[in-house]
């Protein structure tokens, strides 16, 4: 058995069409999902910065949580969240909890 020559091996990891991942809902293989507890969230944006898939969205508006007014809150786009748990791990107030996918 002979091994293929280097130039005969197909190149992997190529994005042939930029933005094509938006058409593929990738949240289906998740076993745990993050839940954001608004009453513990201090709006530090750490979860938003660390999410590798960009599934944490900042929603603008007027929100009142335990008497405090906020101009925005965070929500998770479960269509694309893979349940990695990085957001929960990085949250300084533990406002994000990983729960089993139901």
Q: How would you describe what is shown here?
A:
- The radius of gyration is 19 Å and the shape is elongated.
- It has a single domain (28-100), classed as Alpha-Beta Plaits, CATH 3.30.70.
- The model has no long low-confidence stretch (mean pLDDT 87).
- The longest helix has 5 residues, at 46-50.
- With 102 residues, it is mostly beta strands.
- It has a two-stranded antiparallel ribbon.
- The chain is built from 2 helices and 4 strands; from the N terminus they run βαββαβ.
Strand order of the largest sheet: 1-4
The portion of residues assigned to helices is under 10%
Shape summary? elongated
Straight-line distance between termini: 48 Å
| Total number of helices | 2
What profile does the largest beta sheet have?
2 strands, antiparallel
Portion in strands: 25-35%
User: What is the gyration radius calculated from CA atoms?
Assistant: 19 Å
Q: If you average the pLDDT, what whole number results?
A: 87
The sequence of SSEs as H and E is EHEEHE
Q: CATH class, anyone?
A: Alpha Beta
Count up the domains: 1
Q: Given the helix and strand composition, which structural class is it? A: mainly beta
| CATH topology group | Alpha-Beta Plaits
Low-pLDDT windows of residues:
none
Could you give a quick summary of the protein structure above?
This protein is mainly beta and 102 residues long. The protein has helices spanning 46-50, 86-90, and strands at residues 32-36, 56-65, 68-76, 96-100. The strands form 2 sheets. The protein has a two-stranded antiparallel sheet with strand order 1-4. Strands 2-3 form a two-stranded antiparallel ribbon.
């Amino acid at each position: 058995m002979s091994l293929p020559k280097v130039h005969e091996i197909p190149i992997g990891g190529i994005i042939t069409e930029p933005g094509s991942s938006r058409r593929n809902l990738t949240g289906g293989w998740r076993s745990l999902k993050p839940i954001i507890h608004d009453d513990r969230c201090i709006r530090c944006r750490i979860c938003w910065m660390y999410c590798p898939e960009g599934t944490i969205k900042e929603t603008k508006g007027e929100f009142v949580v335990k008497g405090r007014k906020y101009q925005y809150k965070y929500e998770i786009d479960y269509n694309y969240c893979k349940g990695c748990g990085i957001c929960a791990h990085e949250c300084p107030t533990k406002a994000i909890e990983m729960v089993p996918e139901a």
